[in-house]
Records
---
Amino acid sequence: MARELTVEELRREAKVKLWVKKFIAYTFLSTGALAMIAPFLWMVTTSLKEPGSLFSYDSVWWKDWIPTQFVWQNYIKAWHVVPFARFYLNSFFVTVCVTAGQVVTSSLAAYAFARLNFPGRDNLFFAYLATMMVPGAVTMIPVFILLRSLGWIDTYKAIILPGIFTAYGTFMLRQFFLTLPRELEDAAKIDGCGYLGIFWRIILPLSKPALATLTTFTFMGSWMNFMWPLIVINTHEKFTLPVGLSYFQSLHTTDWSLLMAGSLMMIFPIFVVFVITQRYFVEGIKLTGIRG
Amino acid sequence: MNRTKRLILKNSTKESLAAFGFLLPNLIGFLVFTSLPVLASFVLSFVRWDLFSPPEFTGLDNFIRLFQDPYFWKYCWNTIYLMAAIPLSMTGSLLLALALNQKLKGIVFFRTVYFLPTICTGVAIYMLWRLLYNADFGLLNVTIAKMGEIFHLPLKGPNWLTDEEWAKPALIIMNVWQTMGGYNMILYLAALQGVPRDLYEAAEMDGANSWQKFWNVTWPQISPTTFFIATMSIIGGFQSGFDPAFIMTGGGPNGSTTTIIYYLFNNAFQWHQMGYAAAIAWGLFLIIFIFTLVKWKVFGKAVYYY
C-alpha cells in the first residue's frame, strides 16, 4: 500500500518536472522566434513607410514599427526605378536552367556510378570526390578566363553552364541510389528492360525525395547566387535579382523604403518555395548531413 | 562455353558503353568546368597576367609575394576572426534543438520561423542588416537609445559598420542570427532524436540529474554531429565573407571586413592580377588542407562513434 503511494507521488513529481521543462522550452523558443522574426517585420513596415519619413527620428519607439500610413506605391516605384521585372525574368530563367541541367546530368551520372560496371569507375568517382575538396575559388579564375576567350562573358551561358556541373549533386544522388533495393531492377532486366528503361521507370520514381531535395537546394542556391553573376555579367538588363538589387542599392542608398520593398520582392518567391517544400528541405539536410 | 564467354564479354562492353553514355554530359562539364580549371589555376599561379598583355612566366614570384603580403595575412586574420560566429551559432543551434526536442506542439511552426533567416540569405538580408546597423536611424541603435532614455542611462550604440572596432562583431552577430536556426539546428535535432532511449533510462536508474544526463549521455552521443558541423562550418568559413562584406561594408572600414575570398575577387576582377589571384586561391586551398590534416591528427579520435 505504502509503496503504491510513493509511485504515485513520483509520477506526480515527474509530471510537474515535465511541465516546468516544457514551460522553459516554450519561453526560450518563443524568445528565439521573436528575435528571428523582428528584423523581417521591421523590413515590412519600413517598406511601407513614406520615403524619407524614417529620418524624422521621433521619440515614440513603437512608431518605428507601425507606419502612420501604408504607402503601397513604394513597391510600384521600386519595381520601376530599376528594370525589376527584367531582373526577375533573368533570375528565373537562369535558375530554372541551372536546376534542370543539374538534376538531369547529375542523376544520369549518379546512376552510372551507383549501378553500372565500367573500367575506371572507382578512380573516376574518387576524382569527383577529390574536386569537392578544392575550394570554388581555385576554379573561378580559369573558368572566367575560359568564358572570356569563348566570348561568353555577359551572356546567360556564362552563369548557367558552370552552374550545371557540380560533383556534389552526382555524389548525393549516387549515395541515395545505392540504398535502393536491386530486386526490382533485376526483375525489369529479366523482362527485357534496358538501362535507360530501368533508370527512367524504376530508379527515378523511387528517388523522388532525393531528387526533390537536390532540386530545392539547387534552386535556392542559384536564385541567391551573387558573386558569380556579379563577375560575369556587365549589362544592367542581364542582371539577376541579387546583382540587380545590389545595383539598386548603389543608386538609392538613402531610400530605405524602396530598398526594403525591393528586398522583400526578392525574398518572396524563395519564401513561398520554402513553405511548400519544407519537408524535403529537412529531409535533405539530414540526408546530406549523414555523409560526415 | 565459348559462346557464353563471348556473351558475357559482349554484355560487359555493352554495360560500359551504356555507362559512358550516362556519364557523358556530366563528365564533359566536370572536365571543362572543374578538373581542367584546377590544373589551369595551378599553371596560372606561376604567371603574371593582366588579361590584356600576353602572360609572363614568373616562377614562384606570386607565392613569394603572397607570403610577404601584409594584406593577405591581415585578411586571413579577418577571416578567422569572423569565424567566431561558428561556436556561438552552434551553441544556439544546440540549445534550440534541445528545446525543440521536448515533444512540444508547434515544432513545425518554430522550425519554419528559425529557418527563415537561412532561407532568405543573400543580398536582400544584407541590405536589411545594413539598415538595421545604421548608426543614426537603424533599429538597433534607436532601440539602444530608447533603453537609455527609459532607464536614464547614457546609452549610445556604436557606429556598427563604419567603426573598425565594431564592423567585425556586427557581421558576427548577423551571422549568428542567420545560421543558428538553420541547417545545424536540423542536424542537431536529428542527432538528438537518434540517441537511444535506454541510455537515458540507465542514467536515470543511476540517479543522474538532467545536467549529468546531458553531459554524460547526450553530449557524447551527438558529438559526431558536433564534429561534422564544426568541420563543415570551418571549411566553409575560410571561403566565405564576400557577399555580406560587399553589400554592407565594401570590405571596410580600412579593410577590416575584407576576407581572403574578397581579396581574391579584388585581385582578379578589379585589379586584373590573374596570376596573383590564382596564387591566393592556392593559398586558401593550402590553409584548408592544413586545417583538415590537423583536424585528423588532433581531434580524429576524440569523437564517440557508436
---
Amino acid sequence: MAETVAPAKPHSPPDLVWVGLSLARKEDERLVRGLGKFVDDRDLPGMLHMAVGRCPFPHARIRGINVTAALRMPGVEGVLLGADVVSRTSPIPVLRPLPDARVPPYRAMASDVARFEGEPVVSVVASDRAVAEDAIGDIEIDWDPLPAVVDAEQALEPDAPVLHPELGTNLVAANSRAAGDVEAALSAAELVISDHIRINRVTGLPMEGRAVIARYTRGVGTLDVWSSTQLPHLVRWQLARVLGISESKIRVVASDVGGAFGLKLGLYPEEVLACLHSMDSGRPVKWVEDRLEHFRMTTHAREAVHRIEIGATRDGSISGMRDVYVVDAGAYNSPFGSPMLSSLMFTGPYRVEDAFVERRVALTNKVPVGAYRGYGQPESNFVRETLIDRLARTLAIDPVEFRRRNLLRPEELPWKTPGGAVYDSGDYGAALERALALVGADAVRERQRDLRERGRRIGLGVACFVEMTGYPGSAFLGKHGAAFGAHESVTIRMNREGGCDLYTAVSHFGQSTETSFAQVAASTLGVHPDRVVVHSGDTGSAPHNTGSFASRTTVAGTGAVLAAAGQVREKALRVAAHLLGRDAATLEIVDGIVRDTEDPDVGLPLADVATAAITGHRLPPDDSPGLESTAYFDPPANTFGYGTAAAVVEVDPRSGEFTVERFVLVHDCGTEINPMIVKGQIQGGLAQGFGAAMFEELVYDPDSGQLMTGTMVDYLMPTAADLPLFEVDHTEVPSPVTPLGVRGVGEAGTIPVAATVANAICDALWPLPVAFRRLPLTPERVWRAIREAEQGPRAGAPQSNEGAVT
Amino acid sequence: MKPASFSYVRAGSAHEAVRLLAERPGEVRLLAGGQSLVPLLNMRLVRPAVLVDINRIPDMDRVAETSDEIAIGALTRYSSIERSEAIRRRLPLLAEGVRLIGDRQIRNRGTIGGALAHGDPTGEMPLVAMALGASVEILGPGGTREVPIDELYLGPYTTALGPDEMITRVRLPVIPGRIGAIEEQARRHGDFAVVAVAATGVKEAGGRWGEVRVAVAGVGPYAFVCGEAGTELSGTSLDESSVERGIRACLAEADPRDDARASAEYRLHLLPILVRRALNRLVSRRGALGG
Amino acid sequence: MAEHLNVLVRVNGRDYSRSVPARLSLADFLRHELGLYGTHVGCEQGVCGMCTILLDGQPVKSCLLLAAQVEGHEVTTVEALNQSEELHPLQRAFTEAHALQCGFCTPGFLMTAFALADWNPAPSQAELREELAGVLCRCTGYQNILEAVDGWLRSVGRPTLRDGGGDG
C-alpha cells in the first residue's frame, strides 16, 4: 500500500563540479605500480609468523593435544591451546544480532569440541610460516569424531545431532512477517505455482585472503593491529571486549585491502590469536590466511532452502506470495550473521499486498555463514523471478508483459512492502523497457522463431530487481540491537597549501571511496580533487564510523563529506571575508581562489585563508584557530536501487550445454558521483553473479561431512574466458532521501544474474516446462531439468529435489 | 601452504636424475614444470626428502622430425608445442589439445613428459597422446625402454614407471592422411575435462577411414583407448550407423564415478554426444581439406 | 644437495645473492627477501595468477617456482615498469580504463599483458580472453582489463612505434 512518507530535502550544495565526472582514481597511482600496502606487504623487525591447526572433521571432541614436539622445534616461540584462549578471552561480540535468537558464543578457539572442518584448535608462532606449519604438523591431536549434520533441513529434524547442547536445538531463530491475507489471496488465484529451491553455498573469494599483524608493546600496553578488514573501528571495539582491554589502547589500521565483498566484516578468531601471541612474546605476530584456510574458515554465504508459492489471477496480477525458507548458518552465528534481506525484499519491485515470509536459521557442521554482496537479495531474486516466469507462461502470458502489469509504478511510491521495506522512489518500468530495448527483444524473438525452424534453441530471459542500500538510520539499528550505527563520518582538515587531508575510517578495498570522497569534498571546497588527500582505514586518525558494506558507503559517506566540507567552506569564507573586508555571502571558491562574485578583481588564494586560520594570526573576532571539521551523517532512511537484466542464451537440449550470447543490465543508482566507478562496480557484481549462477558451489559430502570443493581447482571462479560481454546502461532517478540523490550501487550486479539466465534457458526450451531448483546452473543440471520436464509431472508442481551430486 | 622441508639438487643429465631416484627409493621427486607437483608440495600431499630439478638437463626439450615421426623431448613446454611449426603442420591434434590445457602461465612451464608422468585422469595430454598412438621412452638404471602410451597407465595418477625411472622422450607417428579431433566439456576454461574424446583416423579411398583410434577420458579411473570402437569404425565412412556402433563400444567400456564435477550418469549421457562430435569433425575436416 | 642454499638471482636487471631455504617459493623470495612486494600471493596452487612474473620474458606463476630454480634466468616483476615518475603506458592504460579496483590482481595482469606485446601482439577478442585467463579478478568483471590491454597492444603494435624501437 502506498504510504505517505515525507521525503527528506536533498542537500543543496554549491555547484558540485566534480560530481558526475569519470575521474581517474587516486588509488591507482600506487596500485598499478605494485606499491599498494596490503597487510602481508609489511615485515616488521622481530616479527613472528603464526600458523593454525584446525579440526579436519565436521564435528569432533578433542580428547587431548600434545604439543611437546612442536615446542621443541627450533624456531618455535609459542603455542596456544583452546583452554588458554577461552580462559583469557571473552566470546567475539556479535555485531548484528538475530532477532529473538539465542546464539551460542563464538570463541577464538575450540576447547573441547570443534564444530566445523576448519575450526581452530591450536596455534603456533615461529620464525617463519613454513616452520610454524612444520610445528603444527608435529602436534598430536586425539580426536573423537562425533555425528555431524551438513544439511539445514536435516539439522532441524528431531533426530539430528545438536551442535550446541546448551541450546538443545539447531534452530537459532525463526522470524516471520505477514501482510494482508495471503491464504485468501492464494485461494483466489487462478493459478498458484510452488516449489522447493536450494540456493548454493558460495564464498566471496577475494583475491587477497584475510591477514593480520598484531603488535603489542609492553610497558605502555598498546596494541597495534593491521588487518585486512572492512570495519576498523568495529574490530577495535570487538578486540577490546574480547581481550578485556580498553579501546583506547588499541589502534586498528586497514590500509589496502585486496577485496572484501562482505567477508571481512568484523573480528575473526585468528586476529584474536595473533594478539594473544604478541602479548605473550612481546613481538609483532603476522598471520596470513592461505587459500585452503580461506575455504575452511572465512565466512561462507547464501546457502538457503526456499519453499515458495506465488499466485496469480487469470489476467496476470500477482495474488499472494509466500516464502518459507531455512538459512544454513554453519556451526556458529558469525559476528555479522547471515543475511536477512531475503525477508525484507522478498516481494521485489511488484505490487504485492498479501504475503507471508518466514525465515528460519539452522546451525550445521559447516563454516559459519556471513554477509556477501547482495546479502540475501540474490537468493530471493532467483526464487521469485524464476517462479514469476513459470507462472506467466503457464497462464499463457508473456513473462515480460506479466512484469509490466505487476511492477510498481512511480506514482505508487513510496510503497511499504509486506517485508517491511519502504521503497522511496523509482521508475522500475523504465528500467525494464530500457533493458528490452538494449537487448533488442523484438529482434531476438524473430531470430528465435527462425532458429527454431532450423533446430536450434535460443531464449530470452528477464529478471527485475529492487535493492536495498544502506540502513534506515542508526536509531533503527539500535532498536534491533546492532552494535553499530548507519552513519559515516569524516574529518576534513585544511592545510596551509590550500588543500586538505580527509580522514575516514572507511578502508579501501576497491570501492574507490578515496576518489569519490575527494570528488565531493573538492566540489564543495572549490579545489581540484588532487588537493584532497584521503587517509583511510586508521582508527588512530579517523573519527568513529561504521564501515564499508551494504552499499551504504556512498550514501552515508557522501553525506558526511558534504557536511564536513560545507562547514570548512563556511568558516573559510568567513575568514576570507574578514581578510578581504567583504561580505561572506558574496564570496565563492573556485579553483582554490576565494573570489568576490560581485567584484572579479578581488580575490585571495585559499592557501592564504587557510594559513591565516591555522596559525590563528588573522581571524574574525568570534572564531578560534584551525580550519577543519568533523561531521557525521546518518541517512534518514535507506534508499533503493533497482533495475532489470536481460539475457539471450542458446541451449543444446541434448547435452544441456548452453551459451550466454548476450547479457544486458539496466540499473538505477540515482545520481552517479563517478560514472566510471559505478560501471566498474556493476561489472564486478555481474561477474560474481555469473560465478554463483553458473560455476561456483561449496559442496559438502553428505556422508563424510567433508568439504569437497575447497581448493582453487575445485571451486570454480570464472576467468576472463568464461564470461560474456556485459552491456550495462542506467537510468537516473535521484533518490529523495539522500544528499545528492545517490542510491547505493555496490551490490546490484550480483542480484539478477541467476534468474535471468535460468529464465532464458526456460524460454529457449518452452513449451517444455523446464524448472530449476538448484544452483549453479550447469550443463548437467540443465539436462536433468529437461529430463524431469519430459518425464515428470506438469510444470510447477513441487518435485523431488534429487540426483547424485547435483 | 608452505611445503615440508626438502633437499634440492639440480640434475645435469638424465642419467644423474635416474641415479638420484635410485639412491633413495620413494623419497625423491623429479621437478620438471612443477605445475602439478608444486601445488602438491605446497599442500603437503607429497613430502619428498629430495627434489631433483631436471629443468637444466640439456637437449631434452627438442622437437625432432623424421619422415614418419615427431619425437618430442620430455622437457618440452606446452607453449613450445603450441607454437611449433612442425607440430602444427604434421600433428595438429597435439597443438589443438595443448591449447585446452590450463592457461598461458601453466603452458609456459608445464612439460609433455611431466604431464604424461603425472597421469591426470582427465588431462588432455595423455588423451591426445593416446589418440595419436604415441610411445614414451623411459630411462632407468638398466637403460632405456619404450612403452606404448596405451600401456603406460595402471590407474589414476599411476603409471608403469618404476620408482627409479623417468620419461625422456615422447614419440608420435606421423601418418600421411591422418586427421584428428578433440571434443570436451569442461566446467570452466582451462579446467580438467568432465568428459573428453580425442579421435584420429586415416583417410582411405572412397570416403573411408582406416586406423581409427578413439580415446576417452572422464568415464573411467583414467583415460583409455577404446579398442573396440576403433575396430568398429575402421574401414567405414564414419556414417551414422557406424558411429552408433562405435558409440556403443565406447559405452561398453565406460565405467565412470560420481564426483564434484559431474555424476556418472551424466558422463555416460555425454560420452556419445562427444564421440559423435569428434567423429563428425573428422569428416568435416576431411571435407575442408578436400579429401 | 641441501635444505638451504645460496642463489644468485637476476631480478629486473639487478643481481641478488642470498642464502635461502630450498623450499622458499620465488614469490615469497621476491616479496620478503628482496622487498619487492608488488608480486602478490593468492592461492599457492597455481590457479589465481596473482603471483605472475616474467621468466625470461614469459609469464609464469611464481608461487609454483622455487627461488632456487631461477638462478641463471631473468626475472621481471611489476616493479620493472616503474622506471620513471611517469606511469608506464601500460599502467596508464589500466588507470584510464578503470581496469583495477582493489588492485590485488593488477600486477599479475600487467605482467601477463606486457609479455603479449612480444608473444601475441594482435590477439582477437577471444584470444585475448584466453591469454588473460590465467589471472583471476574478483572486482572488475574483466571487461575494463580487456579494454586496457587491447588498447595498449594496439598502441604498441603500430608499425612506426615498433620500428622505432618502441617503449619496453
